[in-house]
Amino acid sequence: MRNFLRLLIFTLVLMSTSLPGFAQDSEENIRNIRFDRKYDAAVELSMESQGYSSFVIQVPRELFAFEILLKNAEADLDLFVRHGSPIENYGQTDASSSTELYDERLLLSRLSRNPLETGSYYIDVVYQGEYAPLREYRRMNRIPFEIEVRSIKPGLQERIRTGTAVQGELRPGDGMAKTFELELQSGVDKCRIDIFDADANLDILVGYEKPDLTRKNADYIGDSLVGNESLVFGPTSRTRSLPAGTYYITVYDAVQSKYPETFGIQVTAGDEPPERLLRIPRFPLTDDELQHSLHATVEVVGERGRGSGCIVTEEGMILTSWHVVRGYSGGASEQIIVASSLSPQSPPVELFRAELVDHDEAADLALLQVKTGLYGQDLPTDYEFPFLPLDDSREHRIGQPLSIIGYPGTGNAGSRISVSLSRGIISGFEKRGSATLIKTDAPVLPGTSGGAVINTYFELLGIPLYSVGETGGGIGYVYPVHDLPEDWKEMIRSRNNF
């Protein structure tokens, strides 16, 4: 029995050193590197183990962020980072970058989702291919590359006053963070911060007399899923007003780190939004039916995440997926934000708040109604929404072309998503309970569910649900309009007067 246990342990150890996803770092094989220096290195390849090269760097207390730059690689290499100890499993790291590009870059800051900490950081550069890459018709036995870890200090702080809107910019060289100084006099009961004109999902930290803010030491945090973030903060129960002094406000992007991002910010004494943000723009007028369909496909933001939706009445009734708006309690999210694509070149703009009209959990469908603007303001008189007419026909055929419009979470370089369209055909049908789902070769990517599936006449054919199989090569499933609840279709038709 003892010999059997020894054999089993030996076998498990051997497997852990040969299976993909496991590293085999030992301290003597780890190269010490310093900040702001370039190092030439290589990943050695063999038939027995996964190719990787390991480094370690010491992060001082005063460092705000660092960026790892992997350059001049001759094959697709990936980056994995872990704090405190060598990497043993690539599924258990603090950060990673594994795009299809040969050269990788990775930013880690005190404001990242896994915040930068003081101490040792271990870095693995890994070739994860099943076979050694080819060069000039021969298998490579080593992949050379250059690695540099750049140190990043906090950007200069900028003063801001209540009642004055200013423009800000997040830069990769500053760790994608910008800090403002706000001097408050005594007697202020509440203070409001509004981010506007942001094309990214930005978050806010506020600290009283704390210039070096992190999520751990911040007094107030605004980190919802919207880009135009708002935060109202006030005194504790022990005081009647906010203490006078300096408040530090940090605006940051915890997701995207490659491109500069601009935004507007305004601080207001009180809890009311500034007047300039209450104007609701109207949708662009167009005779182009495709552009009209793009305008009618919106992004829907609930408590648990983002998805897509499609406007089906000129009064702002929206069809979407139930899982998009379901909250943590199991019912509808307390706040449902609707963002509209005023330009296909830019991410959608958060403009409205909606409420749940009805839902069908089994079918994963929800019907919403826009009620107010983003800040709770009334909609303008005679405000009209672009909408998609319903294709309620049951005469669909295999081979019939269709298009899917939505806001996929993949294929976007930033932390916000622009509207996308993909085309395909009806590939088949599948009976599911009382409904007959439509199958399509057009991809239903994460984030697209709840959006619009339109026919060649730009009518709403159905709601995209999900895909089965590999991304880009699987089968997408669509819930057809003709199987929507009859009372839903009647409500939609009555609102459109036909």
Q: Keywords, please?
A:
4 domains; mainly beta; Jelly Rolls; six-stranded antiparallel barrel; disordered N terminus; single chain; 40% strand; 498 residues; Thrombin, subunit H; 32 strands
Word description of this protein:
The protein has 4 domains: 16-152, Jelly Rolls (Sandwich), CATH 2.60.120.380; 158-277, Jelly Rolls, CATH 2.60.120; 298-373, Trypsin-like serine proteases (Thrombin, subunit H); 401-496, Thrombin, subunit H (Beta Barrel). It is built from 4 helices and 32 strands. The strands form 7 sheets. Strands 21-22-23-26-25-24 form a 6-stranded antiparallel barrel. The protein has 498 residues and is mainly beta. The chain is flat, with a radius of gyration of 26 Å. The model is unreliable at 1-22 (pLDDT under 50). A hairpin with a 5-residue loop joins β22 (306-311) and β23. It is 8% helix and 40% strand. The chain has helices at residues 2-16, 289-296, 322-325, 486-496; strands at 30-32, 38-44, 51-59, 65-71, 78-83, 95-97, 105-109, 119-127, 134-135, 138-139, 142-152, 158-160, 165-170, 177-184, 191-196, 203-208, 220-222, 230-233, 245-252, 261-269, 297-301, 306-311, 317-320, 336-340, 349-360, 365-373, 401-406, 420-432, 435-440, 452-454, 460-468, 475-480.
Proportion of strand residues: 35-45%
Task: Write down the CATH topology of the largest domain.
Answer: Jelly Rolls
Question: How many strands in all?
Answer: 32
The share of residues in helices is: under 10%
Largest sheet: 6 strands, antiparallel, barrel
Major sheet strand order: 21-22-23-26-25-24
CATH class group of the largest domain: Mainly Beta
- Low-confidence stretches are 1-22
Proper CATH architecture of the largest domain: Sandwich
Derived from helix and strand composition plus strand pairing, the structural class reads: mainly beta
Number of domains: 4
Output the radius of gyration: 26 Å
